[in-house]
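As promised in the previous annual report, we have extended the structural survey to additional targets. Below is the entry for 54S ribosomal protein L31, mitochondrial.
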Amino acid sequence: MFGPFKPTSTLQVGLLWKTPWRLSAPRKLRHRRRLRKVDNIVTVLDTALQRQHALTQATTTTSATSSPSQNESSSDLATTAQGQRLLSTTAQSAAQALRSGRGPKRGDLLPPYPAETDKGLIGEIRTTHDAARDNGTIKALERWKADMPREEEMVPRDKYTLFARYERGYRKGVHKLPKWTRVSQRLNPPGF
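The corresponding structure token record, generated without further manual editing, is:
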């Protein structure tokens, strides 16, 4: 009983919390659904803010020019977040290049990045503030879209595990993170 081969420690006082070392299939399913719900909320907020911005721009242009009817040249696809993703192929390729590691840090530039030559930077420099002002959204949404991958863009390894410095393979199950159902943990250091 007290030798080198003693059984699992018995419960002396209080609750014994045993967490399994890996996620079961139903827990993985619920985790994927939670990730998709967060993605959906971000898309809905972005779409609503962009539509409100487009409406305020349309009312200010009609009041300024005082023309009775003015058709918008942008289609419904151009006003929604998903439609803009479909229309802009260059932004998709730049965003996919970011997904394998960390995104830009706070205050860094958003894709597409300017090209660096011997004469300096060539191209448009965009920060989160510029992107939010142009799209009519807020900086937090632009930062989220630039940093965080969507659920379908994530590799399974990043969905279900996270980087842990002191673990054996530098990874541990995402369910070991405290409050893991309420915290978005989607980014890991590159190479891990």
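The CA atoms of residues 33 and 151 lie 9 Å apart. The helical segments are 25-65, 76-79, 81-87, 89-98, 128-135, 139-147, 156-160. These points will be discussed at the next consortium meeting with the crystallography subgroup.
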